[in-house]
Batch of 2 targets.
Target 1
Amino acid sequence: MRMTFQQAVVAAIEDEMEADAGVFVMGQDIGRFGGPLRSNAGLFERFGAERVIDMPMSEGTMAGLAVGAALQGKRPVLDLMFGEFLALVMQQFLDAGAMHYYSGGAARVPFVLRVKYGIGPFHGHAYDHHSWLMGVPGVKIAAPSTPQDAYDTMRAAVRDDNPVLFLEHMALYHAGRAEVERRAPPLPLGPAVRAREGADVTVVASALMTKRALKAAETLDAEGIEAEVIDLRTIAPWDEEAVLASVHRTGRVLLLSEAISTGASINDVAATIAEKAFDALEAPVARLAPPPIPTPFARELERAYLPDETRIAAAARALARWTA
Amino acid sequence: MRRDNDVLEGMYRLMSLTRALDRVVGAHDGHWHGLEGEEAVAAAVYYGLREGDTVAPHYRGAITAALAKGADLGRMMAGCLGKTDAYHLGRHRSDVCGPPEHGIIGLYGGSLGPPLGYACGAALSHVMDGDGDIALAVFGDGTSSRGDCHEAMNMAAIKALPVVFVCQNNQIAISTPAPDGNGGPIFERARGFGMPGARVDGNDVLKVRAAMDEAIARAREGGGPTLIEARTYRVAGHFVSDAEDYRDAAEIAAWRDRDPVARYRAFLIEEGVMDAAAMDALDAKLVAEVDAAFTAAQDGAVPDPGDLMPEDVFA
Ligand SMILES: Cc1ncc(C[n+]2csc(CCOP(=O)(O)OP(=O)(O)O)c2C)c(N)n1
């Protein structure tokens, strides 16, 4: 069936709710309203108010509720609306990440925290704060880039026994339909996919950056430069094996981020490559990320802020041509 | 009570200006959060403050607050469009965040709630300076569910801070009816925190103003905070392009009939403060002014992409 990213996320939740009575959704305006940007459209009509639970504007306690229910064995999926509100639930998410370890393995917190984010048509609530959570052991971060991947990843996230931050990019959300197979998750959270194969330069990306990297790769292809695009899918824990294998194939790697360069989740990838694939490198590890500035409002500044196809292609081209 | 025609006219002007903003900006921006039905609260709450007073306005009505505090209309309009002439230089949006140089504390992240704490901090500073200035902390019924709101009220009460808390209760938060967001009457919380609290008819600008006058006087005299719940109704959608399929059309229509602007106009006419022609002329003048400012802003300069300078984030 052809679906948008948004429809695929909802379909995945619907199928998990169908499969497991312990799965329920919660958040503000997710009932009759269907959630901001239709993020829960149809779930209320299908499952009713008992499993599609509207919340007051009390984010910290909402997350607390989710953690508490998850500790009892439920599988809450909390729609926090926007990633900009992550700061309001950080304590609960920090605690949730520590619970399994600190309880000596007794506690499990199967809790999915959904956030919309990213510069896009919505023109607001764009901030990408996911990198903060790189410093939180025990938490997983998923950032799908296509409708099928959104579907698969959401199902895997709901089935995961750990707290998962699920990122929904607003520029991908309603950006066209693609074929989605409603299947049980073929992969758990973790593995990256090679979205495009190429021998000259590796581009590591996620979410919107994957889409832009694939476009840039087409441009480069016409110039005779073969870019390999690794779509991380899961940003934490990220797939070291897939990234290192690709770096070994190409010897050159460009890392893309939508979170600001300072403290970005890709910095961890860069450090690991430097540590473990130093011998394979034929050029310095390159990064493209927004500058350490709050996400700006004016469209002109927004455009300059995010890595775009042209800059991605230019950076990959420079890497491919780099000689010591 | 001595009737002060300047105040009465000033509040009408602010109401009319609010309606003009709705018309002009709302026509352009699908994400504009309209104030139809709530104009009396904005006019009564933001009118007549001192220059030194600090205002953390509710985001719905934030431009009215900024203009009431002396911000420039042209620069506010430029701020809705991300233009260089804006106070924020195009870096941020003016519809939810007014200029601090005019004593406004807006939203600097997407989250509603934290400005209530900032208002308390401003009030603390006013106490330290002994300047008699106060802080307003205005929030919606939805925002009243945030821990920030509870904590700010408790903090202000304990420290006897000169803060006037105003809940602009329009009975809904996006699609969540107030009874699903608040376990009990909001104004009654005041008692639990140890401050005076009252509920007023938010569609009656004079009632809201009377409550404000009392609360502001108490705050200026060192009597501590007050909570006012102004009960009104969001006749507008959450934002302009809201499909509004979650609300009863008859209910909206009933409240549209209780239009606070029409009600106030009738009062002003009856009392002989302003006549209909004068008010119509003022309405038309303000629409023209806002329209001209908005059109000028549309043609304004846009930020240079080269302006993204990391050093700009540090003072
Ligand atoms: C902390 C936080 N949670 C959720 C939102 C998303 N949001 C934006 S406006 C709004 C409704 C606010 O309701 P209320 O405070 O009653 O103000 P109203 O819109 O009714 O004027 C919500 C939930 C937000 N901006 N901040």
Target 2
Amino acid sequence: MITLQNVNVTFKHKTSELAAVKDVSLHIAKGEIFGIVGGSGAGKSTLVRTLNGLQKPTSGEVIIDGEDITKLKSSGIREVRKKIGMIFQHFNLISRKTVGKNIEFALKVQNYPKDKRDERVKALLALVGLEDKKDVYPASLSGGQKQRVGIARALAANPKILLCDEATSALDVHTTEEIVDILKDINRKLGITIVFITHQLEVAKELFHKVAVMSDGKIIEINEAYEIFANPKDAVTKNLVKSNVTIPSQIIKDTKGKILTLTYKGEKSIEPVIAYTNKKYNVVLNILHGKIEYIQYKPIGTLVVSIEGSEEQVSEALLYLKANVEEIEVLEDKEREAV
Amino acid sequence: MNTSELIEALWVASRETLQMVGIAIVFAIIAGLILGLILYITSTPLLYKNKIINVIAGFFVNVIRSIPFVILLVLLVPVTSMLVGTTIGPKAAAVPLTVASIAFLARLIEGAFAEVDKGVIEASLAMGAGVKDIICDVLLVEALPGIIRAITVTLISIIGFSAMAGTVGGGGIGDLAIRFGYYRYQTDVMFITVILLVVVVQLIQISGEKLANVLTKK
Ligand SMILES: Nc1ncnc2c1ncn2[C@@H]1O[C@H](COP(=O)(O)OP(=O)(O)OP(=O)(O)O)[C@@H](O)[C@H]1O
Ligand SMILES: [Mg+2]
């Protein structure tokens, strides 16, 4: 559906050049929900904007549905854009048009037959559950409702692709959940390929099939969503997806022994491993915190434990644990003093 | 001058002022909108950034705006006599008024367009909208309250300028005030015209502001 081939985007300023996207190649399959995560200024928005020609790459190919859109003239690009919907963090609705007229504008742009527009507007509003808001102005809607209008507008042209730039970042947790559900639904029912930028890890875990991690203009890691969270390879990814379990500082101070954070694939139970370690190495493992998360319906477990015992026993126990969990992180003494 | 003569003179003067200002504002709105659009679109990378056109249009507007109106009045005499056939009367006075207010309004309208949320323009582009769609359905729609405010301000300043234009043969309320109130020491005439102008300007300002607020849907 979407293939990027060595895409570069460089912004030229008077005195300097800024490479916002560096040599990005990737493939997004039809019907996939593809996530892009990364720090601020990593080049996520710039990359996504190359997909509908809002940003022309300095070099490289952007192939949408078999066609390299970087070679197209502006009229050709406009045709491509009609097949790609886009939603935004700040919704970007026309404030002086009613909800219905906002959607009608999208239909007008693609020369949808005049006499059928009204019917289509109603159908689109029904799709996002806003049948009764056709004649109100965006200002009187909540953020979540505005984004629903944004989605309805983006779907007006029956697009094959939906681009979402931080589409839930301005919404509260509950509303974010609603929008995520709508997008999942659209993806499932209509088979629309979704490209979604976010810095909300909850959204990433819930929604993405595949994830690309961007840093400083480059894609540093790209994998199935579960693998990105369960098995992050790059240091940047690790840092980004690190499950931020916070243990109250008083407890950390009062705890004897090392504090370990164990990450394990949740299908296997961790209890036998803990029990065996306690017995075999004659150490005491104390559970401080534990949780299991589901990513694409597959579980990832996180367990924070303290370990007490002689130095030798502890280091042997650590070796055993290392072999039996995905990842083990030891809270260093100086970090402990810092809390 | 007795009361009925005064009323008669005021009536004639008001009609002349209305004519001058009316002609000027109609042309100013048409040309100012076009010029304002050109200024905005050619300075916006999302739409049709064009430095050359922008610089030329901007220069034209700046030149007119930097010439004091009294001097513009004199400079445009040949143009006026060519266009209207005479340099006296309200129609002739409307020519320099129009020119001055086009430049004035164009800048204000450019500002009104610049206030339009760039995100909305970008969203429209992402839908595949062309510049024409964006002008008609985004810029003119979203900037309308700003445009109304710009027209209000321009209308008020045209009324002020019309008094100056009046004194060099255009007629109108300003001319009446100077002829009777200043040259003939009939301060009552001066007084009445001033009150009339204050009331009219207030009315325009208040109704312009009201209209703009009603149209704002934020
Ligand atoms: N039109 C532009 N002109 C010049 N520089 C730009 C332009 N757009 C983006 N940049 C620069 O390119 C870099 C990447 O920007 P981009 O908006 O793609 O980052 P991002 O990953 O989306 O960040 P955020 O999470 O803050 O939205 C930034 O350093 C930004 O300043
Ligand atoms: Mg961004």
